[in-house]
Amino acid sequence: MQDYHDRLLADLKKSMPIVIGCHCAVSYSGRAESYLDYNDCILIIKSDKTILVHQTTGNNPINYMKPGTTYTLNVADKRLLIHAEHRQLKEYMDIHVTNIYYYNAHPLAPGSTLILEGTEKDMVEAIMNKPESIEEGFKPVSTEEHTKYGFIDVFGNDTNGTLCVVECKRYTGDFKAVDQLRRYVEKIKDAKGINTVRGILACPSITPNALTMLQDFGFTHVALTPPKRLAKYNKAQTSLGDFHKS
Amino acid sequence: MQDYHDRLLADLKKSMPIVIGCHCAVSYSGRAESYLDYNDCILIIKSDKTILVHQTTGNNPINYMKPGTTYTLNVADKRLLIHAEHRQLKEYMDIHVTNIYYYNAHPLAPGSTLILEGTEKDMVEAIMNKPESIEEGFKPVSTEEHTKYGFIDVFGNDTNGTLCVVECKRYTGDFKAVDQLRRYVEKIKDAKGINTVRGILACPSITPNALTMLQDFGFTHVALTPPKRLAKYNKAQTSLGDFHKS
DNA sequence: GGGGAGAGATGCCGC
DNA sequence: GCGGCATTTCTCCCC
Fold for domain B2-105? Predict the structure, then answer.
């Protein structure tokens, strides 16, 4: 265990990304408090001193600390004690390691940037490029309009010149989406001193209860699905395999 | 690369948790579309066939697939091609690996359960145990009251017998919290056919804009911080070190 | 750094 | 499975 202590200390100093398969217990104190009994885990300490404690299932770490954590190491009772502390965030984590199955530290170059398409922002762009997807005669005026009660996705006029607030969701519309739309509509009415402002929720689908609430407020649901532009790009290639070989 | 192909195939068959430090490119298609150019990554494939693609910084994986993903492997042009597909979710991911820095697969026992304290649920319990923390004379009636517009954290009466809806947030109160509270209050008014229902937002702090909105609706903010019971437990021990050695 | 809101959110519980 | 909602949410953008 003393060997691992020395290696970990050196690798932390070099800001090396570290992966450890081990048997350990974890306690955390900060925004909340947690305790994890001794069990098998995968520990990942990244170059930015983020630490993730992963178990053998699930998407999310069972425990973690944010970037900028500092580490203090000790060996006692044949155990490696890792004290991870984040002073600014007033958080700490203690890991007691009894057994290490594997230990890997290897220099890794900083990552590439992910290209992501099909987000809500892409929905907004699609509406700006094709306003009739909201309804015939819709004329968008602005996007990301800032009000004191939040940011409005798309702001525009319908064919009658009535002001329209459009809120986009890439997923099934719910209460929260209707709440948000309502907040914007009310604030616009208040700010402009007018009584008639339409609320339009653009999303692929909507829950029955949210639809009821939407209609209670006199708002409209428009079925819209976020575009996935990379799909088109991939289709333009003869095949996915060829695309990647390039 | 053929050796790694064979090892990975065998380890996947055994549902072994696998960690790979490598140079790779990743493309994803499903709920959205993404492409990540060749770069250094840590790949983690868990026992439940979750895959995480981590870079050297940050809390979250840059790419991932959920539990239940199936894998198809190939070697071409000295590259290991990992095709990960989730048929139910209609998602897939392609990883092209050009270089492997380390490869680890080791049987890990299923994890322990995390004990977590200081959640919103703990706030609700604390209020039930000490109703005067909301205000003098407050009498809680129920928790998790189900309405058609959502679940009410705490429902009760003030010293005048006026109905009170209490919404708890463990973090700084914001617009969304006020929206939620408002939705419950309105629904209760509607359901009970009464005009006077008080809304109380219990949270450690509140943003200035949210406070304005709260007050516009005639609601109240009560400063409450989520309890952290493990902190007390740890204090009861002579020291944290002793606690862990037990 | 705080406020506001999206996320390929995830995860939990209830119906 | 969907619905509703918390999360040690995380992350990004903008002031």
Answer: Protein Yojf; Chain: A; (2.70.180)
pLDDT of residue A72: 98
- CA angle, A101 then A104 then A106, to 5°: 175
- At B85-133, the pLDDT tens digits run 999 999 999 999 999 999 999 999 999 999 999 999 999 999 999 999 9
CATH 2.70.180.20 residue ranges in chain A? 2-105
Domain B120-244 classification at class level? alpha beta
Residue of A nearest to B25 (CA): A244
Using the predicted structure, report yes or no on whether residue A183 has a pLDDT greater than 90: yes
Q: Assign A242 a pLDDT band (cuts: 50, 70, 90).
A: very low
- Whole-structure pTM value: 0.93
* Closest-CA residue to B80 (of B97, B100, B92, B103): B97
Q: What are the backbone dihedrals phi and psi of residue A74, each rounded to the nearest 5 degrees, phi first?
A: -150, 155
Residues 63-92 of B with CB under 7 A from strand D: 88
- Give Cβ neighbours of residue B162 (< 8 Å, ≥ 6 apart): B196, B197, B198
Cα separation, B74 vs B71, in Å, equals 10
Q: Are B46 and A64 an interchain contact pair (Cβ–Cβ within 8 Å)?
A: no
Nucleotide with minimal C1' distance from the CA of B147 is D4
Alpha-carbon dihedral sign for residues B3, B6, B9, B14: negative
Contact between A209 and B148 using a beta-carbon 8 Å cutoff: yes
Q: Is residue A178 within 8 Å of A208, Cβ to Cβ?
A: no
CA distance B24 to A245: 12
- Indicate yes or no: strand D within 7 A of the C-beta of B124: no
Residue with the larger pLDDT of the pair B36 and A235? B36
Q: Which residues in chain B have their CB less than 8 angstroms from residue A112's CB? A: 36-39
Query: Mapping DSSP to helix (H, G, I), strand (E, B) and coil, where does residue B191 land?
Result: helix
